[in-house]
């Protein structure tokens, strides 16, 4: 499965990329909205992990633009703030999950396993 990780913090992108690769996923990564749109158009990932607060394009606006390219894209929103209006908007845009930083990796693994097709196996930690 191909995924795209988008966060303006390089350390966060690298951390999630390593974690997701260890789960057997193919990962592309971007540190800004424009780069994310280019990678999204080129690689057509099945999943995107989007930070909400970024300097050039916020994650919610980015998800809207991605939905215009591929209405079926699955998204997991990631935020440093527990903001009900952002959560509501993310869900209205079709985001499957809204996670608050710092992310509990065991919880994230469980969430990912929920959405991965049965034939794909995710190893335990």
List keywords for this structure.
about 120 residues; Rossmann fold; 5-stranded parallel beta sheet; alpha/beta; single chain
What does this structure look like?
- The chain is an alpha/beta fold.
- A 5-stranded parallel sheet has the order 2-1-3-4-5, sandwiched between helices.
- The protein has a single domain (2-115), classed as Response regulator (Rossmann fold).
- It contains 5 helices and 5 strands.
- Helix content is 44%, strand content 20%.
- The longest helix is centred in the N-terminal third of the chain and has 13 residues, at 10-22.
- It is globular and about 30 Å long.
Question: How are the SSEs ordered, and which strands pair?
Answer:
Blueprint (H helix, E strand, L loop, with lengths): L1 E5 L3 H13 L3 E5 L2 H11 L3 E5 L7 H11 L4 E6 L4 H9 L4 E4 L4 H11 L10
Parallel strand pairs: 1-2, 1-3, 3-4, 4-5
Helix pairs in contact: 2-3
Tell me the distance between the termini.
Answer: 19 Å
Principal-axes shape call = globular
User: So, CATH architecture?
Assistant: 3-Layer(aba) Sandwich
**Helix count from the secondary structure assignment:** 5
